[in-house]
Design goal:
It holds the Pfam family GST_N. This protein has 225 residues and is of the alpha+beta class. It has helices spanning 18-27, 46-51, 70-81, 93-121, 127-130, 134-155, 169-183, 192-200, 203-211, and strands spanning 7-10, 32-34, 59-62, 65-68. It contains 9 helices and 4 strands, in the order E-H-E-H-E-E-H-H-H-H-H-H-H. The chain binds glutathione.
């Protein structure tokens, strides 16, 4: 690996695209941005499809290496570019396993099974494609609240971050889901609210929010909410 990485991040404007922006700001990495947005047709161009046949954002190019899936990109950045001073990943094997457990839990239960289901079936989001289904949206919101109890239990011991004293990329994944839930009017639990405010005060979070803004306005149906 070269001393100065050649990083390009494709994608802005959603709860998934902000994750790698944020990880790179936490790690102090310089990178180029290709500000393509969701549902704009920009993920379907020949150039982009060659890089990412799945035609989804975000996508990271690190030199000649490409990786998609926001959680995988964040894990890759965490493992490749953490330093003793700036680390997004725990050190011991067991802590690493617990970190992975949180990452999979957040992506599977909070993002895919709850929030993305809401997105697909809300009238103001992708309901025009997948069908407007208020009952499904309500159930998915309730499922989110149930699953969030596991986070609340973990935070109830007074820890600062999901893994304790160390901020890791699991916190990046969780915060983006909490932001998304708040935007959808899902009540987040008592311990999650102060946690969210604590994390949102991080400089790297605010830099990522600024970096994740689309160049042209994204229509409500395409945006994260
Ligand atoms: N599981 C993927 C989901 C990526 C995804 O669905 N991205 C959407 C935007 S949030 C997308 O690119 N949709 C295709 C498009 O907008 O053209 C991840 O976390 O990266």
């Amino acid at each position: 690996m070269s001393a100065t990485p050649d990083l390009t991040l494709w994608g802005v404007g959603t709860s998934r695209t902000i994750r790698p922006h944020w990880a790179m700001h936490e790690l102090g990495l310089s990178y180029k941005v290709k500000p393509i947005g969701p549902r704009t047709g920009e993920t379907k161009t020949a150039e982009y499809t060659r890089l990412n046949p799945r035609q989804k954002i975000p996508l990271l190019q690190d030199g000649d290496f490409c990786i998609g899936e926001s959680a995988a990109i964040v894990a890759y950045l965490s493992r490749t570019y953490s330093t003793p001073d700036r680390s997004l990943i725990p050190e011991t094997q067991r802590e690493l396993a617990a970190w992975l457990e949180w990452c999979f839990f957040i992506v599977a239960e909070l993002d895919s099974t709850s929030l993305y289901v809401m997105r697909r079936h809300r009238a103001d989001a992708l309901g025009h494609i997948y069908g407007v289904a208020p009952e499904v949206v309500a159930q998915a919101g309730e499922y989110f609240r149930q699953q969030l109890r596991h986070v609340e239990v973990a935070l109830a011991d007074g820890r600062t971050f999901l893994m304790g004293d160390q901020f890791t990329s699991a916190d990046i994944l969780l915060t983006t889901c909490l932001d998304w839930a708040v935007a959808y009017g899902v009540c987040i639990c008592d311990n999650a609210q102060p946690y969210l405010e604590r994390i949102q005060s991080r400089a790297a979070y605010q830099q990522a929010v600024a970096a994740n803004v689309p160049v042209a306005p994204i229509t409500p149906a395409a945006a994260k909410v």
